[in-house]
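QA checklist item 7 of 12: single-chain prediction sanity check.
[x] sequence parsed
[x] length recorded as 76
[x] structure emitted
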Amino acid sequence: MARADELWTTAETAAFLGWSPKTLRNKRSQGVGPAYEVHRGRRGVLYRPAVVRRWQKTNTRVIDPEERLRTARRNI
C-alpha cells in the first residue's frame, strides 16, 4: 500500500500505466492524463498514486469481445 505522502515521478507513473514517459508527457500537455503536482525545489512534476489509480479506473474502457466480433462482421 502506498503511503499517503508518497509521490511518483513521471517515469514511475508511466511504468504503472504501461506507457512510455514521453506518452505521459504528451498526455499531460494535452490535458488528458492524470492530475499532477509541481513542487518548489523539486525538478519535474509528481503524481499521487491514489489520484493516478482513480484516473486509470475512470478512464479504462472494457470492450466486450462478442460486441467487437458482431461489429467486425457488420463491417465486412
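[x] summary fact logged: The mean pLDDT is 89.
[ ] second reviewer sign-off
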